[in-house]
Amino acid sequence: MGLTILAAGTSVPDMLTSIVNVKKGSANSAVSSSIGSNIFDVTMGLPLPWFIWSLINGGRAMDVVSDSLLISILVLVGMVAVLWIVFIVNNWQLTPTSGVIYILF
After folding, report:
1. Do residues 18 and 30 make contact, with C-beta atoms less than 8 angstroms apart?
2. What is the CB-side half-sphere exposure of residue 98 using CA atoms within 13 A?
3. Which range of residues forms the domain containing residue 89?
4. Residue 93 within any structural domain of the chain
5. I want to staple 30 with a disulfide (CB 3.0 to 4.6 A). Which of 18, 42, 83, 94 is the partner?
6. Is the CB of residue 14 less than 8 Å from the CB of residue 37?
């Protein structure tokens, strides 16, 4: 329960920043922020603490027991693939159709 509240708490500032960017007419910044923050979480938020733990414990590998980590990474990679495909199909422009596709995914 604590992790869920923490996850929501860290996502709210990103959401508010995206809303401000969209209202200023910079929808591209909002989309890149929403994707970039998740990629940063997976590429830095998970490995960095594990790396520090390993350094503190003499280079010993840390056992990660998670039934959903692989699924989470696959969903993230799938979302990035959908993002690229939609961008390519729409000639690298954000359109109302691309917005609907992103909401559905």
Report:
1. yes
2. 18
3. 71-105
4. yes
5. 18
6. yes
Buried b (16+ CB within 10 A) or exposed e, 54-64: eeeeeeeeeee
pLDDT tens track for 86-100: 889 988 887 888 888
In total, how many domains does the chain have?
Answer: 1
* Nearest one of 89, 78, 102 to 28, comparing CA atoms: 102
| pTM of the complete model beyond 0.90 | no
| CA angle (53, 57, 61) in 5-degree steps | 70
Whether 78 is in a domain gets the answer yes
Q: What is the pLDDT of residues 55-78, one digit of tens each?
A: 999 988 878 777 887 888 888 788
